[in-house]
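User: quick one, sequence for these tokens?
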């Protein structure tokens, strides 16, 4: 923003707007619940006049509330005309008065009630049509405001982390720090309340090191998102007991993950191995330039993001690992990924270039001679999200050592002669490390864009083994794209009582 300061509404106005959104949400929920099919209502409702009138009274009150909320929202956002605002207010007042009349006439004979009942039903029908006609516009404005608030909040947290000189964990695109922190704290409280129910360091299962099973790595501090990844993969698997998830998180979130999976054991016999990155002794400043940069105060380096470059060292007994991001949903059995022929290459991934887009020139600074000498600017970029890694080929080709060279090179050139690539991009580090060493996977394995693209074809989504909510509009946020959100929420364990307490946008 000009002048160096981002606009932020005053505290009273933000509080008022938050209260208004809450009112709108509650009123809309009441409206939706009261708008079920007429056949369902008529088949289950008592036929007595007083019961029918009581139901009409309740519907009128509900619709009066939702229209009052729309009237206030129209005035607040300055999007509706004065006539529309007046229409909402007038109809809301009429319905409120009608509701009062209904409440005071419940004892009248049926013949006297019929005209009043007919009037009420007609007004409710009109109110429902008016609300439905206006809902889309108001929802769009609400999403824009919530997205703005989310961007502002994440920006503020990033600024604070930079001022502090260190990031202890990643700031995930689209995450809700307050909700995640709330959930972690609630889970920790449950552990403190009953410490004997949760082991500090559970005994490892033999499946964790068995190379004949199907192993996944997930690096995340979002316990809710990880639970969806595990649940969706388990339900899609033909034999869930052969699937093993290695979940690595920050030490501060380790207790929360353990409590969650102790209270909600992995479904259908899948195995979940929960670790903190502090459990790996080799992750220190002597062995890792990533750790050195973090300890030197490089706030744009997040260790959880870069752990993927240490997979062979983290899991020395394994031959193949599938890396899944925490914002994916698995829709089909992934066992076949362990039979994909990588032609001796290290990485299997879905490419994302088309025409001249998403090629190496987008990610690397080709004005630098060292970049020009090593990479082709027209090479096709691939995506993280679903990646098959042959750990034996990785060890053979020394990919971790190559990654270290690029990290050291980046730091040297950053100090001397500008950037080689975007320092906040873990993808670019992967594009360089696995350049010429990546086998393209069929696109149906990994369909991307559900966190930003509203135009993905339903057929592409139906045929996808994994759908990826990459982008800022994560499915656990209020700003999620509604047409995709149910793909994620159907795997959420809604019986976990802490979710409603922590205000996730589910």
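Assistant:
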């Amino acid at each position: 923003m000009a002048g160096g300061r981002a606009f932020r509404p005053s505290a009273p106005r933000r509080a008022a707007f938050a209260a208004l959104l809450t009112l709108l949400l509650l009123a809309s929920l009441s409206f939706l619940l009261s708008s079920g099919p007429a056949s369902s209502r008529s088949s289950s409702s008592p036929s007595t006049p007083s019961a029918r009138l009581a139901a009409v009274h309740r519907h009128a009150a509900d619709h009066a509330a939702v229209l009052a909320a729309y009237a206030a929202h129209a005035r607040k956002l300055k999007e509706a005309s004065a006539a529309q605002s007046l229409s909402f207010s007038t109809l809301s007042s009429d319905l409120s008065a009608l509701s009062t009349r209904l409440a005071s006439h419940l004892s009248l004979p049926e013949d006297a009630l019929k005209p009043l009942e007919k009037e009420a039903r007609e007004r409710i029908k009109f109110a429902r049509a008016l609300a439905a006609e206006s809902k889309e516009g108001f929802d769009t404005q609400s999403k824009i405001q919530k997205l703005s608030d989310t961007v502002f909040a994440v920006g503020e947290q990033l600024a604070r982390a930079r001022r502090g000189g260190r990031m202890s964990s990643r700031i995930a695109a689209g995450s809700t720090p307050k909700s995640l922190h709330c959930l972690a704290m609630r889970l920790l409280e449950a552990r403190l309340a009953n410490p004997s129910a949760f082991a500090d360091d559970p005994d490892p299962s033999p499946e964790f090191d068995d190379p004949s099973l199907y192993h996944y790595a997930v690096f995340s501090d979002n316990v809710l998102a990880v639970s969806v990844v595990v649940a969706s993969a388990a339900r899609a698997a033909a034999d869930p007991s052969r699937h093993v998830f290695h979940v690595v998180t920050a030490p501060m979130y380790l207790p929360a993950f353990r409590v969650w999976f102790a209270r909600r054991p992995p479904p259908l016999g899948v195995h979940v191995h929960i670790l903190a990155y502090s459990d790996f002794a080799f992750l220190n400043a002597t062995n890792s330039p990533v750790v050195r940069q973090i300890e030197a105060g490089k706030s744009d380096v997040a260790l959880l993001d870069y752990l993927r470059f240490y997979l062979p060292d983290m899991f020395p007994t394994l031959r193949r690992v599938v890396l899944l991001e925490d914002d994916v949903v698995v829709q089909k059995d992934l066992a076949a990924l362990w039979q994909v022929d990588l032609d001796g290459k290290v990485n299997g991934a879905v490419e994302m270039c088309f025409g001249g887009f998403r090629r190496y020139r987008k990610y690397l600074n080709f004005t630098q001679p060292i970049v020009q000498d090593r990479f082709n600017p027209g090479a096709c970029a691939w995506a993280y999200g679903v990646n098959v890694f042959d750990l034996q080929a990785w060890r053979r080709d020394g990919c971790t050592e190559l990654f270290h060279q690029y990290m050291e090179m980046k730091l040297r050139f950053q100090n001397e002669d500008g950037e080689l690539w975007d320092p906040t991009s873990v993808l670019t580090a992967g594009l360089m490390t696995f350049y010429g060493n990546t086998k393209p996977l069929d696109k149906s394995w990994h369909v991307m864009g559900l966190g930003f693209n509203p135009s993905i074809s339903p057929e592409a989504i139906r045929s996808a083994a994994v759908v990826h909510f990459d982008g800022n509009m994560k499915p656990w946020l209020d700003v999620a794209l509604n047409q995709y959100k149910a793909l994620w929420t159907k795997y959420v364990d809604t019986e976990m009582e802490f979710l409603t307490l922590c205000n996730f946008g589910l």
